[in-house]
Amino acid sequence: MIDHLLEIKQSIEDSSENGRPISTSLIKRYEARYKTILRRGFRNNPFSTENVEKKRGRPKRTNIQNMLIRLRDYQKEVLAFMYDPDVPFDNNLAERDLRMIKVQQKVSGLFRTFAGAEQFCLIRSYISTVKKQGMNVIDSIYRIMSGNQLYLNFQS
Length: 156
Known about the structure:
The chain is an all-alpha fold and 156 residues long. It has 8 helices and no strands.
């Protein structure tokens, strides 16, 4: 599956370099291959039928089975980067945005008040947005503190 997703990513990068979107027929082919890989995964990792009647609740599944189920149920989300060129292949940017919160939590252990946590998140969100806009963080903070309103181009 990893190789298949990386192949799709490379194909999208190649087509965007040529200035044209990925073809619909190629998207259909990639979707079919995705489903084939999932079917093979389910076949190689069958669900256990032992003691299903004796225990209450959902039968225990392996990590591989859980991943296969997620990949099947969220196919459109997993392949979102293929359908929309504005969707990144990975979520590294989101992980970097959350990192400072985890670092602060690790250093101090907690926020003393809910208001303090809200203020921290507001400031971190502002700094993250300024960086993504390619602006200077110090200048932007200075402008806010001096009362000059700063326009940030939020995409919705």
